[in-house]
């Protein structure tokens, strides 16, 4: 019996040593998972009522630097916000760039509180979150200018890496809807494309990965009238519309060696056809690029009617994807 208990003790000791070694090697990732879990459990245990659910859509306010001008075009300053790291890493801070949506016409760089548990948890592990603005469409469509704004944000990050301690080998971009479209244009195009500010033009714009939420990849497939009067009217005043749509469709920028991409899209999206994402996925595979497609079953374009299973799949996949592509 003593030998039996001694054997059990040795077995348990081996398990503890193996587990301890695993936790040591992956200690940053384990900490990240636990931190994010705790953040979301707070919301789960104290869910907002129907009267204050809008609080989750209010902007994050815990930024370290607000409205930094990254470029000035003809007297129109464009700004970004920096949510700095809460831990110093020896190789510098990985960067997640957030590009807002809004049909290219609406929206701003504010990050909604609903995303804050995820972003704050990454900040706790040494990440920097940057949210950028781009020039919104008014009377005329200018996808070229908007793409150069996002790309110039990336160039600004490279230019200022020593000032803010950025690790420019670890830059990821998250875009939603039109922001995803511009993110893909910026990430898939070469450094020579979409140059705006001459003071930034000599800096690179490379990124490691892209997360595309409901992004249009083939503009010729869209019914722009569903995006609102402002955009539809601006497009109607544009010459050579179909040529413009093809020119600024990310699907036409695919080639080998592109950043790893996670595509998130719903089959029931009535604004951007789901086929935009399946086409991007299939063609990316043809070029041997690393790409993943997360299909939501019931959500609308604005994540309305999203069900519990989709929420769990979405949160898990995005977290796993970022952690997999992080240096932690």
TrEMBL record:
PANTHER family: AB HYDROLASE SUPERFAMILY PROTEIN C4A8.06C (PTHR48081), ALPHA_BETA HYDROLASE (PTHR48081:SF13)
Ranges for domain BD-FAE-like: 80-283
Keywords carried by this UniProt record: Hydrolase, Membrane, Transmembrane, Transmembrane helix
Regions annotated as coiled coil: none
Keyword Transmembrane included in the entry's annotation: yes
Transmembrane segments: 7-26
Protein name in the entry: Triacylglycerol lipase
Domain of life of the organism encoding this protein: Bacteria
One GO molecular-function entry: hydrolase activity
Signal peptide (UniProt feature, chain positions): none
Pfam families according to UniProt: BD-FAE
């Amino acid at each position: 019996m003593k030998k039996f208990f001694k054997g059990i003790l040795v077995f348990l000791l081996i398990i503890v040593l193996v587990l301890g070694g695993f936790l040591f090697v992956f200690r940053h990732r384990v900490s990240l998972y636990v931190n994010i879990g705790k953040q979301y459990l707070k919301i789960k245990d104290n869910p907002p009522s129907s009267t204050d659910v809008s609080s989750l859509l209010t902007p994050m306010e815990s930024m370290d630097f607000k409205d930094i001008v990254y470029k000035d075009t003809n007297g129109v300053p464009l700004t970004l916000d920096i949510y700095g790291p809460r831990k110093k890493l020896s190789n510098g801070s990985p960067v997640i760039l957030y590009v807002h949506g809004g049909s290219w016409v609406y929206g701003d760089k504010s990050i909604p509180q609903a995303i804050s548990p995820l972003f704050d948890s990454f900040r706790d592990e040494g990440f920097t979150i940057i949210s950028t603005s781009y020039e919104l469409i008014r009377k005329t469509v200018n996808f070229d200018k908007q793409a150069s704004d996002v790309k110039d944000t990336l160039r600004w990050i490279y230019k200022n890496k020593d000032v803010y301690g950025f690790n420019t080998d670890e830059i990821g971009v998250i875009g939603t809807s039109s922001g995803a479209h511009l993110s893909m244009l910026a990430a898939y195009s070469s450094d020579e494309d979409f140059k705006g500010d001459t003071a930034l033009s000599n800096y690179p714009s490379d990124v490691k990965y892209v997360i595309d939420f409901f992004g249009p990849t083939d503009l010729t497939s869209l019914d722009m009238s569903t995006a609102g009067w402002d955009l539809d009217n601006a497009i109607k005043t544009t010459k050579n519309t179909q040529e413009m749509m093809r020119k600024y469709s990310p699907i036409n920028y695919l080639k080998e060696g592109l950043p790893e991409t996670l595509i998130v899209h719903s089959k029931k999206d009535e604004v951007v056809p789901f086929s935009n994402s399946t086409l991007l996925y299939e063609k990316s595979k043809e070029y041997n690029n690393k790409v993943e497609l997360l299909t939501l079953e019931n959500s609308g374009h604005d994540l309305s009617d999203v069900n519990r299973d989709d929420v769990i799949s979405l949160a898990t996949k995005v977290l796993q994807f970022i952690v997999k592509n992080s240096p932690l």
